[in-house]
Specification:
eight-stranded parallel barrel, TIM Barrel, alpha/beta, PEP_util_C, 21 helices, Enzyme I, Chain A, domain 2, eight-stranded mixed beta sheet, 3 domains, Glucose Oxidase, domain 1, globular, 41% helix, 16 strands
Length: 551
């Protein structure tokens, strides 16, 4: 028996034989033959060939005209219609983009030189450029991780995995996750907590544990116990306290408290998850493991399975797709090449957003739904998305398709959004502050600070003032929403909508109940506190301010 330590990414204890994933599909990526998905490989080739050709053509002021001719000829060869047809045909027959491009381009090179006699002496240079291009098509090791089909309980051990890769597994068999890398505040951590899967990240040399070795993942203590004695295993599992304090008097809640939901499968007990309403559905997590882009009908059915279980008058709030950072789906996402959503931080384009908005509206028939747009950083984005949502509603009306009543909200989760908050508040039903992302930006370029910092407090205060002046609901989401010691501060910023994970709901409810019973505290924007926050600069100053009114 031995113990490894790391960083806790959840709570609880899991025990099962290990399944260690430490190898990729192919150690020699240039010999990669079979594609993961035909459409993905086609999109990979189309995009990267176009970008590489543009890169060659945009090289300015080469030393000689002959160099300019060489670069132009290479760009033309890579993107020629004949070569493209052959490459795409090989991909459709099962080749990866890199292997198809290597096969066609290298084989056709001699014929190319017969036609372009002026550059036949530059064969080595052109071959070098072609190899450089082909390398851009190869998959990284992270892409090539091979995930098995699970049929029995395991502790999953890997260097790293993405949320999409985890959700592509039969997660009911995953009793714990151990990673050599990872951050507890990552989106993977969020998914694991929502699925109640114990996890420990940052465990040195974890992948040296052989598959089949019995392992305990104690997320409460942030340790991994390898080959524990049977009596220890039973003792640790028995000590788990799964009983949560329940609150029965909902009248004691003077703020809306809803669950943040993401990683929920069709087989889950949806009514249990949505018992406190749907505070925020992070919709992308429902589809990260899809191999192809979901259709409007597929999204409508999936949303309806969840929305229909939300009680009347309980919150029903859903965020549109956010594929930023590590939330990359298995299917290819098409983004806008121009227009207001070009470069949109959520990594999604108009076509897919339109399908999703229509699906959310159709799935919420007979209910009121607040649709939240994430990662807005420009007024042009806000105006465009507002119009897009209303256009979707008008289309459904014209087609006489029943739908829910729509309210529109925007997430404030970047410094740009904080500074533009007064404009974002216009015509919005609610302003929802994403404290996890705000904390990341508040610490940049350093890793996010787990402490509640003056910079983060200032950004929350500035956005809160904008919401107050616009007379709209102010909500708090993200990892700081569950920090119960901050509840008095949130109240005094006018927060009346709080979103946290289902695993934190009862804890937060208990604190809210106590505050209301003992202090009759009400959500109300405090301009005096705002002035103190924007003029404080050190942790000690902020601590003094918060302690002056904490209960």
């Amino acid at each position: 028996m031995y113990t490894l330590s790391g960083v806790s990414a959840g709570a609880g204890v899991g025990a099962a034989p290990s399944l260690t994933i430490s190898k990729t599909k192919n150690t020699n990526s240039t010999d990669e033959i079979f594609a993961y998905d035909v459409e993905t490989e086609i999109d990979r080739f189309n995009k990267k060939s176009s970008r590489f050709a543009q890169k060659l053509l945009q090289i300015v002021n080469p030393a000689k005209d002959s160099v300019r001719d060489l670069l132009g000829a290479t760009a033309g060869f890579i993107t020629s219609a004949d070569n493209k047809i052959e490459i795409l045909e090989l991909i459709k027959r099962g080749c990866s983009a890199s292997m198809a491009a290597r096969t066609v381009l290298i084989e056709n090179l001699d014929n190319f030189f017969k036609r372009e006699t002026d550059i036949k002496n530059d064969k080595d240079e052109i071959l070098s450029l072609l190899n450089e291009f082909i390398r851009t098509l190869e998959h990284s090791k992270a892409d090539e991780i091979e995930l098995p089909e699970l049929k029995e309980d395991v502790i999953l051990i890997a260097r790293t995995i993405s949320p999409a890769q985890l959700l592509s597994l039969e997660t009911k068999f995953v009793k714990g996750v151990v990673l050599e890398e990872g951050r507890d505040s990552s989106h993977l951590g969020v998914v694991l907590r929502e699925l109640n899967i114990p996890a420990v990240f940052g465990v040195f040399d974890a992948t040296n544990i052989k598959s089949g070795t019995y392992v305990i993942v104690d997320s409460n203590a942030a340790v991994v116990i390898v080959e524990p004695p049977e009596d220890m295993t039973q003792g640790i599992l028995r000590r788990q306290d799964s009983q949560l304090f329940q609150i029965n008097d909902e009248s004691l809640l003077n703020i809306t408290l809803g669950a943040a939901v993401g990683a929920i499968s069709p087989n889950d007990d949806v009514e249990k998850v949505t018992a406190n309403g749907l505070g925020l559905l992070r919709s992308e997590f429902l589809f990260l493991s899809s191999m192809t882009e979901p259709t409007e009908e597929e999204m409508t059915q999936r949303f309806y399975q969840i929305f229909s279980k939300v009680k009347k008058n309980a919150p029903l709030t859903s965020r549109t797709f956010d594929f930023a950072d590590d939330k990359k789906p298995l299917f290819t996402v098409i983004t806008d090449d121009d227009g207001p959503l070009k470069g949109y931080g959520a990594g999604v384009g108009t076509a897919l957003l339109k399908k999703e908005i229509r699906a959310m509206l159709r799935a919420s028939v007979g209910q009121e739904i607040t649709i939240v747009f994430p990662l807005i950083t420009r007024i042009s984005e806000k105006d465009y998305l507002f119009k897009l949502a209303n256009d979707c509603q008008d289309e459904l009306d014209a087609q006489k398709i029943p739908h829910g009543k729509m309210l529109i909200s925007f997430m404030v989760e970047t410094p740009a959004a904080v500074l533009l908050a007064p404009a974002f508040a216009t015509n919005s039903a609610m302003m929802l502050l994403g404290t996890s992302s705000l904390a990341e930006y508040a610490s940049a370029p350093c890793p996010a600070d787990s402490a509640f910092t003056p910079v983060l407090a200032k950004m929350i205060a500035m956005a809160a003032k904008a919401a107050h002046e616009a007379g709209i609901t102010l909500g708090i989401a993200g990892r700081f929403a569950a920090r119960t010691e901050l509840l008095p501060f949130f109240y005094k910023m006018g927060v009346s909508y709080l979103v946290t994970g289902t695993y934190n709901i009862q804890k937060v409810k208990g604190v809210v109940e106590r505050l209301n019973l003992e202090h009759d505290i009400q959500p109300d924007f405090d301009i005096e506190l705002y002035n103190k926050i924007v003029n404080c600069y050190t942790g000690a100053e902020l601590s003094d301010i918060l302690n002056s009114f904490s209960y």
